[in-house]
């Protein structure tokens, strides 16, 4: 009888629970939670960029060709590196690579907002007001436009505009590179350590976040663009434009700062995840193990 009691009390699962079970960083569910937040923040930047590209074009006088190239430039780094990163995925510390990609996206978002702080304030005096119903948003030439004189309503690019475009291109390129390890490594890591029963659920959650992220970015863009672009440089009395005036430029840079903060916060947990974790055990198997011990 005493030996039986000793064998029951010496059960390691009862007397000394493993330390790994106490840490959320050894649970695949917590990894799914962190990865959902990271993908939401990363795709928020993508949606926000698309919602504010017309505002950036108006602010710096970019042509439609430059704006289109800027909007699609993040796919360059992603397309070039996705094959190589996916091939070496099983040989590296995947959570840390995901965290590194998130930190790189954080830096890229800051870089996207940098032209606002290094450039001059927005000058709308040389543009056409459109507060009336019959006003036009096109520039107007004082003299007749002729082909021989080569006079046209073209946008003028000053030093600030010329310096802003390379920074925005570099930020978009880094955003594309940063996105390379996030989704492939995250999906493969979850598939390796999730149970067969829960793996489809976890992957479905990630796919749902993939659809929600850009929508959140568009909503964020609609909110941020209600603020004047230079509200941090000018007082309220100095801002003499309203939303109805087509010279109005919203605070396009503010969303990138917010996204950068979110990316930084969501990147921190990946520094503590191990390179591998115990395979997730279904709940049914866990409950059936104690019953077999008394047979």
UniProtKB/TrEMBL annotation:
UniProt-listed Pfam families: OATP
Residue ranges with Polar residues bias: 134-153
InterPro entries in UniProt: MFS_dom, MFS_trans_sf, OATP
Record keyword Disulfide bond present: yes
UniProt keyword list: Disulfide bond, Membrane, Transmembrane, Transmembrane helix
Major facilitator superfamily (MFS) profile domain ranges (all copies): 28-295
Membrane topology: Multi-pass membrane protein
Cellular compartment(s): Membrane
Annotated stretches, region: Disordered: 1-20, 134-154
Transmembrane intervals: 69-90, 97-118, 164-189, 201-229, 249-273
Alphabetical GO biological process terms: sodium-independent organic anion transport
GO molecular function, one term: bile acid transmembrane transporter activity
Protein name: Solute carrier organic anion transporter family, member 2B1
Lineage, highest ranks first: Eukaryota, Metazoa, Chordata, Craniata, Vertebrata
């Amino acid at each position: 009888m005493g030996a039986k009691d000793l064998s029951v009390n010496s059960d390691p699962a009862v007397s000394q629970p493993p330390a790994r079970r106490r840490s959320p960083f050894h649970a695949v569910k917590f990894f799914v939670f962190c990865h959902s937040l990271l993908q939401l923040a990363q795709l928020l930047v993508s949606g926000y960029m698309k919602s504010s590209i017309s505002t950036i074009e108006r602010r710096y006088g970019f042509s439609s060709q430059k704006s289109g190239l800027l909007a699609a430039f993040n796919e360059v780094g992603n397309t070039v590196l996705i094959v190589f990163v996916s091939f070496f995925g099983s040989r590296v510390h995947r959570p840390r690579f995901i965290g590194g990609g998130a930190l790189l996206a954080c830096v890229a978002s800051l870089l996207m907002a940098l032209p606002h702080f290094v450039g001059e304030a927005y000058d709308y005096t040389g543009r056409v007001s459109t507060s009336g119903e019959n006003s036009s948003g096109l520039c107007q030439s004082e003299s007749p436009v002729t082909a021989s004189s080569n006079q046209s309503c073209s946008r003028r690019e000053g030093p600030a505009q010329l310096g802003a475009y390379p920074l925005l291109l570099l930020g978009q390129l880094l955003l594309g590179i940063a996105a390379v390890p996030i989704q492939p490594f995250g999906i493969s890591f979850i598939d390796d350590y999730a149970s067969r029963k829960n793996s489809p659920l976890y992957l479905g959650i990630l796919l749902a976040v993939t659809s929600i992220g850009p929508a959140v970015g568009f909503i964020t863009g609609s909110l941020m663009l209600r603020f004047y672009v230079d509200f941090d440089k000018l007082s309220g009395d100095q801002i003499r434009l309203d939303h109805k005036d087509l010279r109005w430029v919203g605070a396009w840079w503010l969303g990138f700062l917010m996204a950068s903060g979110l990316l930084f916060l969501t990147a921190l947990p990946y520094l503590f995840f191990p390179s591998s974790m115990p395979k997730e055990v279904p709940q049914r198997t866990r409950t059936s193990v104690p019953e077999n011990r008394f047979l």
